[in-house]
Amino acid sequence: CVTLDVQAACRDTTVTQELLKEGFHRDLLVKVELGEDAGECVVAARVRLPPGIYVDPDELATLQQHNLSKALLVPDIVDVEAPEYLARDLVVLLFLEPDPRCSRCSRAAVPVHARYHRPAQGTATASLVLESPDVLLCCCHSHLAAECWEPAEVDAPCSAENAGPCQWHSTKNRPASKESVLRVPVGLREHSSLVCALTLLTTGLCSGLILAAACKYGHFS
């Protein structure tokens, strides 16, 4: 009976994430609908990105300067040039803004970029799975139901502006959500010989043209 009462009191939290735009450069949109009104609580989503996807810290800093996005990266130093097989996972703590169309809803977006992958055998795409984000609440002036929320180990401030310590809480029941899949174009291994031959031919031709122009128009003492 106690279990039924707790389930009835803890309404489901719904999380949805969408990958907007096309190609290697996307926007990740996260929307959260809480089971109850969060009041003055700060709502955040902890998003885990696989090695094949990253957030550019410089781009994020520019967006935050213009108040277009609020997020923290862990780690905060990201090698944006590394390919997928040399990169590591990244965690984004995305601070959500209230949705004016829904009293229990919050949303936010952050730009994400796909990394280059190794050539594959027999397939022209690689699938990157984005796990469902964790929903976190920080309530400085109100109390959350203990049967619905529990303290979460998150070393992050309550907001992007406030650097002070904060106690985050996560839902005890798993939020209803679905994984997202990003398909990234990759090269085909069976084309390796052709690509190498064309690259070598193009390099030799361009080098020859540069050398010919230097000999014709160059002034040598």
TrEMBL record:
Q: What does this protein do?
A: Stabilizing subunit of the glycosylphosphatidylinositol-mannosyltransferase I complex which catalyzes the transfer of the first mannose, via an alpha-1,4 bond from a dolichol-phosphate-mannose (Dol-P-Man) to the glucosaminyl acyl phosphatidylinositol (GlcN-(acyl)PI) intermediate to generate alpha-D-Man-(1->4)-alpha-D-GlcN-(1->6)-(1-radyl,2-acyl-sn-glycero-3-phospho)-2-acyl-inositol and participates in the sixth step of the glycosylphosphatidylinositol-anchor biosynthesis. Probably acts by stabilizing the mannosyltransferase PIGM.
Q: Per UniProt, which keywords does this protein have?
A: Endoplasmic reticulum, Glycoprotein, GPI-anchor biosynthesis, Membrane, Transmembrane, Transmembrane helix
This protein's species is Climacteris rufus (rufous treecreeper)
- Protein topology in the membrane: Single-pass membrane protein
Subcellular location field: Endoplasmic reticulum membrane
Its main localization is endoplasmic reticulum
> What superkingdom does the record give?
Eukaryota
Q: Which GO CC terms are listed, alphabetically?
A: endoplasmic reticulum membrane
Q: Which family does it belong to?
A: Belongs to the PIGX family.
One Pfam annotation reads PIG-X
Q: Which SMART domains match?
A: PIG-X
The pathway this protein participates in, as annotated, is: Glycolipid biosynthesis; glycosylphosphatidylinositol-anchor biosynthesis
Keyword Transmembrane helix set for record: yes
Q: Name one GO biological process term.
A: GPI anchor biosynthetic process
Protein name per UniProt: Phosphatidylinositol-glycan biosynthesis class X protein
